[in-house]
Design a protein that fits this description.
binds 2-oxoglutaric acid; four-stranded antiparallel β-sheet; Jelly Rolls; 270 residues; 2-oxoglutarate-dependent dioxygenase activity; seven-stranded mixed β-sheet; Phytanoyl-CoA dioxygenase; alpha+beta; Phytyl_CoA_dOase-like; iron ion binding
Length: 270
Amino acid sequence: MSHQLSAEQIDTYQRDGFLSPLPVFTQDEVRQLRKQFEDFEQRFGGVERAVSRRTDLHLLTGWGYDVVTDARIVEPVTSLLGPDVLLWSMNWFIKEPDNTKFVSFHQDANYWGLEPHDVATAWIALSDAGARTGPMEFIPGSHRGELYEQHNTFEKDNLLSRGQTIEAALPTEDCFMTPLAAGEMSLHHVRTIHRSGPNKSSDRRIGMVLRYCATHVRQTKGADTATLVAGEDQFGHFRLMQRPNVEYGEDEMAIHADAVANQGKMIMRD
Ligand SMILES: O=C(O)CCC(=O)C(=O)O
């Protein structure tokens, strides 16, 4: 069965800079994935302490690797980026129940260092991401406009690494909320302006966030790693990572720690 996007879906993405919702996982699968993720959190000392380790779980766990290579996610991405695709990183945006954490208006292209901007994010809900949970909100068409200057606020409740915020006046009245049911995903372009509000629900809002790029994309900030998930890599711009042999194995832990530290450096480097 093909999971490629239709011509109409591709047009919508190209026009708006995002596409939502798309079904991915069944309820059984999503329950199992949430359990695997929450087991990981417990294994590493609980929710707070596991935060520093949760990036790139596909380098540490088979289930993580299976997710980032899942045809139901990767094929729609190839419809947008072409047949040769890398996973650059796997992140988590989690808002605990009844929580003031938020994400300010920003553009990912401003600080990732990836160029050209043939880069897309698959944002996958592992819990309900309905209107009360602070789902993703996008400004349609903003990926076709300018790259805005962002100010680093380091605000306590801002989930972004530096609290980066676009301070210019934006057409916020156009902002489009994309609530998702558990198991659904949205796709967004690396230049699309987006934000999200606080979680006013009684459950965690768990976003599993996968960043994909075409193989011709370069990291302009230094040497970086990525995982080939579709087609072939004829460019060699990234050191390619492999599926972990042993779940949480010693070698895997070292490889993972190294990749995560390096990615942190890339994101924080100006
Ligand atoms: O999940 C969120 O609230 C924000 C995620 C985000 O900014 C992103 O995926 O680029």
